[in-house]
Amino acid sequence: MSKQLFHHINKYVAITEEEFQTMFPFFELRTLKKKELLVEAGSVCNQNHFVLDGCLHMFFINDKGTERTIQFAIENWWMTDDLAYHNQTVTDFSIQAVENTRLLAITHDKQEQLLKEFPQLEKYFRTIYQISYGAALVKMKYLFGLTKEEIYFHFTTQFPQFAQRVPQYLIASFLGLTPEYVSEIRAKKRS
Amino acid sequence: MSKQLFHHINKYVAITEEEFQTMFPFFELRTLKKKELLVEAGSVCNQNHFVLDGCLHMFFINDKGTERTIQFAIENWWMTDDLAYHNQTVTDFSIQAVENTRLLAITHDKQEQLLKEFPQLEKYFRTIYQISYGAALVKMKYLFGLTKEEIYFHFTTQFPQFAQRVPQYLIASFLGLTPEYVSEIRAKKRS
Fold first, then answer.
1. Cyclic nucleotide-binding domain spans which residues (chains A, B) (predicted)?
2. Which of A149, A160, A171, B65 is deepest in the core (most CB within 10 A)?
3. pLDDT value for B1
């Protein structure tokens, strides 16, 4: 299990098994049942999470009381409200397990300490954030450049395994669509 | 001029003036006239840009031939298509000067070399990307959680100086609104 984070770090920077053994105690293993809440909106955001297996989603509740999903995290993805985590402020987002999930959690203080002791991890996190930010710009391009129907089919074609394992209403929420609209365009495609 | 990047780096990591003097030749000073293109969609994305003064916007042209702005960069902001820059691939985005602009450009190869020679800059870029990614999640929350009218007034209230200096049609484009819609809600507010 710890091997997984070790291999993920080694995709971007070289660390030894001995170094990783010293890093590992900075993390806490958490297991969540499907639908269990990991973070509740309104709490101070002081943890970051690396998913070992399962799936999380981060969402907020809009004025109409509807859940809107902002991001997903599956195996080897990090998830937190990054701005609130950086500023150590209250988050507007909740994080919930979409499936039974195992993850490694690290507090903000411990992550700071980890980065101080192993500065080579700065490159690991820099690379991950660079990719994540770049992907967020691309997502914005799809939201602004495609019709709702195109957004849905682009997403499900681009990430077929993901689209199969995550409930349709969450995919709809992530793409800014209503579940009814998604049912409608899926039915249209089948007919 | 070079002082500006020096001070910006020192907001996040401590570097000496001597170190900065060694870093500075990695960059090239560029000046752009208002409306001049810095990057054209379809080219390989191999430069990153730090704005000294002025303003840039990154945009793509949608199927209807309309420009959609994805991000802005004013003084002390970095701008590139981060995913294409990371992968060294062709970008779908163009970057253009909104005002006369002076910036420091660095190629991908030189940035890699800079980070190798000054690994403490990994923390600087990690922090900047962490904040940028966090802000992108917050933007997504506004796009998904507010009405079009609320998005516009939230943005112009939150960033009044920015809203004053950037043409309305670009702000509309950035917020996923049409210029006609923005004129309409501004007129409604005045009446």
1. 30-117
2. A171
3. 53
What pLDDT was estimated at residue A1? 53
Of the candidates A81, A126, A137, which has its C-beta nearest B137's C-beta?
A81
Question: pLDDT per residue over B10-39, tens digit each?
Answer: 999 999 999 999 999 999 999 999 999 999
State the greatest distance between any 2 C-alpha atoms of chain A, in Å, as a whole number: 59
**A140 near B CB under 8 A:** yes
The chain B residue lying nearest A79, using CA atoms, is B134
Residue to substitute from B11, B39, B113, B137, interface A, most A β-carbons within 10 A? B137
User: Are the Cβ atoms of A68 and B125 closer than 8 angstroms?
Assistant: no
Closest CA to B71 of B136, B125, B134, B131: B136
What are the helix (H) ranges across chain A?
2-10, 17-23, 82-87, 108-117, 121-145, 148-158, 160-165, 168-174, 179-190
C-alpha B82/C-alpha B86 separation (Å) is: 6
Q: Where are the alpha helices (DSSP H) in B65-177?
A: 82-87, 108-117, 121-145, 148-158, 160-165, 168-174
Q: Is the pTM of this model over 0.95?
A: no
| Beta bridge pairs of residue B51 | B103
| pLDDT bucket at A176, cuts 50 / 70 / 90 | confident
Please give the pLDDT value at position B50.
98
Query: CB of A7 within 8 Å of any CB in chain B?
Result: no
Nearest to B100 by CA among B155, B169, B53: B53
